[in-house]
Specification:
The protein is α+β, with helices and mostly antiparallel strands and about 280 residues long. It is about 15% helix and about 35% strand. The chain has a seven-stranded mixed β-sheet with strand order 5-2-1-8-9-6-7, with helices on one face. It has a seven-stranded mixed β-sheet with strand order 12-11-10-15-16-13-14, with helices on one face. A two-stranded antiparallel ribbon has the order 3-4. About 25% of the residues are buried. The N terminus is likely disordered.
Length: about 280
């Protein structure tokens, strides 16, 4: 029986070899081979509906800079040039403003957030930092913690985003730049933002506001300038709420002296100006 099986197998192999030889003889030399009718040519796999083809999705964009709160669950940041350096053994970024950079406004309510502090609820580093090899915060926090950070004013972040959504927000250490002092006109943008000499600046509850008027609640330059210095600058200290209220009532820009930080975009102090000072 084993000999019979071997004989049948040899006959089958011979028949298949003969068939292959005949097929090869039927195709002219150099002509392309044909695909058997029973085996379809390879076709690209179909992309499931609703999913982008490979390589079609846009890569997330990145912005380094000082971010400000711009409404509930929203931040705004103007991209700056960032250079990673090591100073006294600590990694930090040096930021430089980019001429013509466009502000980006992003929803961060679903973003991942990492801080340079060793705990999410700390206001300051308290002398200890949690940084990764790229100088970015590595303490994992939540969007609620990010809201807490932004409530206190601007903060330096690397923001990875797609469309109008922040995907990942990473805090880092940086130098805050040098404040400037200048005279110019100021106008309200919203309750925490102004335009000064065409520069968009934010302010916090810590802003210094000095008036020439008798009361902090008085209209702009109303009444006698009882609190004006010899050079016409306000001397009466008032609050951020006073500044917001009095500026909100103005229909036109008003003249002030201001201290501000062009790098972080923060308005630090404002003096009401009386006369031609």
């Amino acid at each position: 029986m084993r000999l019979l099986a071997l004989t049948a197998s040899a006959c089958l192999c011979a028949a298949l070899s003969a068939t292959g030889a005949a097929s090869a003889a039927a195709v002219p030399a150099g002509a392309p081979g044909t695909v058997p009718a029973t085996v379809p040519a390879a076709v690209p796999a179909a992309v499931p509906a609703g999913l982008p083809a490979a390589g079609a999705s846009a890569a997330a964009k990145v912005a380094y800079g000082f971010a400000w709160s711009d409404g509930k669950g929203v931040l705004r940041v103007t991209p700056a040039k960032a250079t990673l350096v090591k100073e006294h053994g600590i990694l930090r970024y040096k930021l430089k403003a980019v001429a013509g950079a466009k502000e980006v406004r992003l929803d961060y309510t679903k973003s991942a957030y990492s801080r340079v502090t060793v705990a999410c609820d700390l206001v300051e580093t308290e002398g200890r930092v949690a940084l990764d090899a790229k100088g970015l915060g590595r303490t994992k926090c939540t969007p609620a913690d990010l809201a807490f950070t932004l409530q206190r004013g601007p903060a330096p972040f690397k923001v990875e985003y797609s469309g109008a959504k922040a995907v990942k927000v990473s805090e880092f250490l940086t130098d805050w730049g040098n404040p400037r002092s200048a005279f110019g006109t100021i106008r309200r943008v919203n309750d925490t933002t102004v335009s000064f000499k065409g520069i968009k600046l934010g302010y916090t509850h810590a802003i210094g506001f000095y008036r020439v008027t008798a009361k902090c609640s008085s209209g702009w330059l109303t009444g006698k300038p009882v609190n004006a210095s010899r050079d016409g600058l306000g001397q009466k200290p008032c609050t951020a709420a006073d500044f917001t209220k009095v500026l909100k009532a103005q229909k036109h820009p008003v003249l002030v002296k201001a201290d501000y930080n062009p790098l972080s975009g923060e308005l630090i102090e404002v003096w009401e100006v009386y006369g031609d000072a």
